[in-house]
Amino acid sequence: MAKRILIVDDSNSMRGFIRTALTDGGLDVIEASNGRDALTMLDRHAVDAIITDVNMPVMDGITLVKEIRRRPVNGSTPVLILTTECDAAMKQAGRAAGATGWIVKPFNPQQLRQVIAKVLPLQAG
């Protein structure tokens, strides 16, 4: 069974780019357009990892990470922040919230798949 990744981004085109990169790597993908939608998706689907943008309407990515870490079911699920934000204070906010990693856009599909491959084994431990 393929690992399932939740992509959270308010940009349809970015979700499409990420979806293609991950499905080409044999991963299953579900999508949400903001943090609140992501929490609804997590209530309905089990996921192996989450990739989220920071700047989104309704609920931003940092708040989403905090909410995910409060949930017993997803408390240890790897969460990667994929964003154009590269400010050190913003990265620290992501770490403090409980993010597993930080990827700065632009990225290439192979890099994304390599990062996903690195964080997925964390779940087994």
Description:
The protein has helices at residues 12-23, 35-44, 61-70, 88-97, 109-119, and strands at 4-8, 28-32, 49-52, 79-83, 101-104. It has a five-stranded parallel β-sheet with strand order 2-1-3-4-5, with helices on both faces. α2 (35-44) packs parallel to α3 (61-70). 42% of the residues lie in helices and 18% in strands. The chain is α/β, with parallel strands linked by helices. The protein is globular. It contains five helices and five strands. The mean pLDDT is 92. The longest helix is centred in the first third of the chain and has 12 residues, at 12-23.
How is this fold's topology laid out?
Layout: E1 4-8, H1 12-23, E2 28-32, H2 35-44, E3 49-52, H3 61-70, E4 79-83, H4 88-97, E5 101-104, H5 109-119
Parallel strand pairs: 1-2, 1-3, 3-4, 4-5
Helix pairs in contact: 1-5, 2-3
Brief overview:
This protein is an alpha/beta fold. It is built from 5 helices and 5 strands, in the order E-H-E-H-E-H-E-H-E-H.
